């Protein structure tokens, strides 16, 4: 006998746990299946998020390190945008993802770890999932929260592999000299020929140092670039003093536009499997949590009645209304960034120097709403600042 649930969630990342939590909270039966032996056994992200998102989701204080200052380095320029309050944070990714999963369990979801889902087939009024070791389960609605893999969508033939994506390699290090309130973003060909590098303090003497590259634009493996940067102690890495590697992280993130649907009969895609990420700075955790909740809520309603794509459409409309235009604007800025030479990056930093901390963070967060752009245009009449936000396309 194959066990059936109203909602089965595949993947125990931020999208999956949030979907499971909200669906279970709505009173339907929910199973979350995660392939790894524990939630967040492997870390695939740098974990930067925003104080406003932390408050919105109620993430406990033990799970993050607050950031107040934002350093930006190009080959021959450097700027630090300073603030009096913290508006950003670096998450303890494991603790945060495990907290999200415990919230889902608390709401009544069952969690099964150590079971990779290998195939999905439509089965009467739902979807049959089969995994390692003869495991099978049926969901009236299945939420694909398996991240970049999009395991359910791919198995059902709903979506192919991502053509454009970001790849990132990162060390989590103990360092003898860390400013826990200041992050660094590093741009220019000495760091990454198509992307950027970072130093993100995690708290105490821990810091994440990484490099991301855009694929297929850049053929080089980010791990090779990262090892070169560590060996040469390039830029802010040279200020970290003695370092000792604690962990190595590697991850992939869709980066090709929101070109796939996120609802099908009995199936919802959420988080990275739906391409819900800001491509500019590889940022998707807050979207995964927020839209995971929306997916779970929608799945719970559909599971007790009509689970057709049409009845799930409110989910797609909802998340697209919230972020689609921002993500599209971020793509424009990203295209421009990828074409900048080292000299142009040096000039770009002079433009960034004009921004206040909240303006700078709006930019990094891809908050390019019209009211913000207009305020920016008034405060900074210099054309370059408006170009930076994509208001005026560079000639
Ligand atoms: C290098 C890098 C750095 C990043 N830095 C940031 C950052 O600083 N801030 C930020 O907000 N975002 C960042 N991101 C993006 C962020 O990590 C993702 O947007 C976010 O993790 C998406 O959450 P998710 O739940 O959709 O997917 P994931 O977090 O990838 O979770 C998917 C889960 O599904 C499981 N799974 C996969 N396949 C199966 C299967 N077949 N069966 C069962 N389980 C399965 C996986 O093990 C995993 O637990 C970064 C991404 C990369 C690659």
Q: Which distinct ligands sit in these coordinates?
A: flavin-adenine dinucleotide
Task: Please write the string of helix (H) and strand (E) elements.
Answer: EHEEHEEEEHEEEEHEEEEHEEEHHHHHH
What is the CATH H-level superfamily of the largest domain? FAD/NAD(P)-binding domain
Q: Gap between N and C termini, in Å?
A: 65 Å
Question: What fold name goes in the CATH topology slot of the largest domain?
Answer: FAD/NAD(P)-binding domain
Count of distinct structural domains = 3
Query: What is the strand content?
Result: 25-35%
Rg over C-alpha atoms, rounded to the nearest angstrom: 21 Å
Average of the residue pLDDT scores = 93
Task: Provide the helix percentage.
Answer: 25-40%
**How many strand segments?**
18
Largest sheet composition: 8 strands, mixed
Polypeptide structure, described:
With 395 residues, the protein is of the alpha/beta class. The protein has helices spanning 14-25, 51-57, 93-106, 151-155, 222-232, 285-303, 309-339, 342-353, 357-364, 370-379, 383-388, and strands at residues 3-10, 30-34, 48-50, 64-67, 69-74, 77-82, 88-91, 110-113, 117-123, 126-131, 136-144, 165-175, 182-186, 195-203, 206-215, 243-254, 263-264, 267-269. The protein folds into three domains: 3-44 and 93-162 and 259-323, 3-Layer(bba) Sandwich (FAD/NAD(P)-binding domain), CATH 3.50.50; 64-91 and 164-254, D-Amino Acid Oxidase, Chain A, domain 2 (2-Layer Sandwich), CATH 3.30.9; 330-388, no CATH class. The protein contains eleven helices and 18 strands. The strands form three sheets. Strands 1, 2, 8, 9, 10, 11, 17 and 18 form an eight-stranded mixed beta sheet that branches. A seven-stranded mixed beta sheet has the order 6-5-13-14-15-12-16. A three-stranded antiparallel beta sheet has the order 3-7-4. Helix 1 (14-25) runs parallel beside helix 6 (285-303). It is globular, with a radius of gyration of 21 Å. The chain starts with a strand and ends in a 7-residue tail after the last helix. The mean pLDDT is 93. Residues 10-16, 33-36, 44-49, 116-117, 145-147, 149, 151, 166, 168, 212, 251-253, 271-272, 277, 282-286, 288 line the site of flavin-adenine dinucleotide (FAD). Flavin-adenine dinucleotide (FAD) binds at residues 10-16, 33-36, 44-49, 116-117, 145-147, 149, 151, 166, 168, 212, 251-253, 271-272, 277, 282-286, 288.
């Amino acid at each position: 006998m194959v066990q059936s649930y109203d909602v089965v969630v595949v993947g125990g990342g931020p999208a999956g746990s949030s979907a499971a939590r909200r669906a279970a909270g709505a009173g339907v039966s929910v199973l979350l299946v995660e392939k790894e032996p524990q939630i967040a056994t492997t870390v695939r992200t740098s974990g930067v998020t925003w104080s406003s998102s932390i408050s919105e989701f109620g993430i406990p204080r033990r799970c993050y390190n607050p950031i107040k200052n934002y350093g930006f380095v190009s080959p021959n320029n450097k700027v630090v945008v300073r603030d009096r309050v913290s508006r950003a944070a670096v998450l303890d990714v494991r603790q945060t993802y495990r907290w999200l999963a415990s919230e889902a369990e608390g709401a009544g979801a069952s969690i099964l770890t150590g079971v990779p889902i290998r195939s999905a087939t439509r089965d009467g009024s739902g979807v049959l999932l089969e995994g390692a070791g003869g495991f099978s389960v049926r969901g009236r609605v299945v939420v694909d929260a398996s991240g970049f893999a999009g395991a359910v969508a791919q198995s059902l033939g709903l979506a192919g592999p991502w053509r454009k994506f970001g790849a990132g390699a990162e060390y989590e290090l103990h360092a003898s000299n860390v400013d826990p309130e200041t992050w660094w973003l590093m741009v220019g060909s000495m760091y990454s020929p198509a992307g950027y590098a970072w130093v993100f303090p995690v708290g105490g003497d821990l810091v994440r140092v990484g490099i991301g590259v855009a694929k297929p634009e850049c053929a080089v493996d980010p791990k090779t670039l990262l090892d070169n940067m560590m060996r040469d102690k390039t830029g802010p890495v040279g200020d970290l003093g003695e370092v000792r590697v604690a962990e190595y992280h590697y991850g992939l993130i869709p980066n090709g536009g929101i070109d796939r649907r996120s609802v099908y009969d009995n199936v919802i895609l959420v988080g990275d499997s739906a391409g819900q990420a800001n491509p500019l700075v590889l940022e998707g955790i807050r979207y995964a949590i927020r839209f995971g909740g929306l997916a779970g809520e929608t799945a719970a309603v559909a599971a007790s009645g009509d689970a057709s794509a049409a009845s799930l459409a409110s989910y797609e409309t909802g998340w697209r209304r919230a972020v689609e235009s921002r993500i599209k604007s971020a793509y424009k800025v990203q295209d421009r960034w990828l074409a900048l030479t080292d000299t142009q990056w040096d000039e770009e930093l002079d433009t960034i120097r004009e921004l206040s901390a909240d303006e700078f963070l709006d930019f990094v967060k891809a908050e390019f709403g019209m009211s913000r752009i207009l305020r920016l245009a008034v405060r900074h009449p210099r054309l370059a600042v408006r170009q930076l936000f994509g208001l005026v396309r560079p000639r």
